[in-house]
């Protein structure tokens, strides 16, 4: 497995958010960092004007091996805060096909949207945003891949050491015609995916997991993050599926505001309050 050096610069500024470590990384290193006081003042001012504007719809996109029910905590909290929320069932067949399906859903939503992707959902929200950049208010990547055009999930996964995703933790079911579905082995699911949760809860998720077409992981992305859309990224510091160093490097490269949560890979399921706070900040 190749070892790449993290090429992006680190913190341009830092602030606290409910125990979450926040790093403001600007795509333009000449931009000055905002102090915590200024950030808080700005947030309060925006919150006051928010009452006079329609809230964007939040679209939550799950990754491979999981169901949309993994967003239950975020859906509950966002709806309580007055947001409309959509969490589609991703087909998990191909980057292009899944993104086209999601694009159709987003185009059916009236008004702006915030796209939130977990894991494999990261490339999907990137492609959707490239199709409709005017409708997308912000992109939020939660323990997710953030590709550039031409990069695949498999390629990004191999750039840093540390992933447990591989033949020891997964298996495939082959079908006539050459297609194959990849699953996480039940006995490996907690270590790979759900390290913050009980063995019982992890076993339930392993039993209800949705497989991804193996070829999707090697499919090059058609687009990178469109210019002009604010980008937020949440790094799961205990991730055993996507190396945290890879998540941070991709986020820095995308010019994202970066948040770090002490979480395993299933960040939306195990830390919904922290994720919801970041989504609401992106929505404002």
- The string of secondary-structure elements, in order, is EEHEHEHEHEHEEHHEEHEHH
Query: How many domains is the backbone divided into?
Result: 1
For the record, what CATH class applies? Answer: Alpha Beta
**What overall form do the CA principal axes indicate?**
globular
Low-confidence stretches: 1-16, 24-52
CATH level-3 fold name: Rossmann fold
The spatial strand order of the largest sheet comes to: 1-2-11-10-6-5-3-4
Largest sheet: 8 strands, mixed
- Please give the number of β-strands: 11
Q: On the 0-100 scale, what is the average pLDDT? A: 86
Distance between the termini: 40 Å
Cα-atom radius of gyration? 18 Å
Determine the fraction of residues in helical runs and give it as a percent range. Answer: 25-40%
Question: Which second-level CATH architecture applies?
Answer: 3-Layer(aba) Sandwich
Domain AB hydrolase-1: 58-275
GO molecular function: hydrolase activity
Keywords: Hydrolase, Signal
Pfam family, one: Abhydrolase_6
